[in-house]
Amino acid sequence: MRRLRSPLDGLLRAGFRGPLLTLAAAWVLALALALPGGARAQVHASAPQALPPVLEQRADKLAHGLRCLVCQNQTLAESNAPLAQDMRKLIRDQLAEGRSDAQIMRFFEDRYGDFVRYDPPFKPITWLLWLGPFALLALGFVILVRTLKRRAGARAPLTADERERAARFLDTGS
């Protein structure tokens, strides 16, 4: 099988190994020095804007009422997932624009469905979610009652021989 050659193979064989490695090291160093500045600029660009205390309370209340779509068992306020951070920023931006809590909740419901709410609304599509546990509890109770009735009805009365044996056992046991 024939190996494909790169243009650098000839240079490396000709003795340019030292200068090429120096050039590569300089290139990596330049990239490493350039990255922290770009990362710093990105952090400042995504830093949340300061809101008045009233709006901060509303943002916190909304973040506690929405589910993190990554974690699913945490609210937006509890989650540290990048998506949750973005969603909290969206809440703050919309509050700064003057939207009401209902409008913000509707925005997230339209975008992600009722699942995004930590307490889904009671409507026909979520009836099973709300009533399912109670229906299962009622079904379990019905099964328990039927099982107990069958056990009570399944016992046949004692025969005369069984009664005599039980009486002897009770008399001799005391």
From TrEMBL:
It comes from Achromobacter insolitus. One of its GO terms (cellular component) is plasma membrane. This is Cytochrome c-type biogenesis protein. GO terms for molecular function: metal ion binding. Coiled coil: none annotated. It holds the Pfam family CcmH. Belongs to the CcmH/CycL/Ccl2/NrfF family. Possible subunit of a heme lyase. Residues 33-170 form the CcmH/CycL/Ccl2/NrfF N-terminal domain. Keywords: Cytochrome c-type biogenesis, Heme, Iron, Membrane, Metal-binding, Signal, Transmembrane, Transmembrane helix. One of its GO terms (biological process) is cytochrome complex assembly. The chain crosses the membrane at residues 125-145. It comes from the Bacteria. CDD domains: CcmH_N. Signal peptide: none annotated.
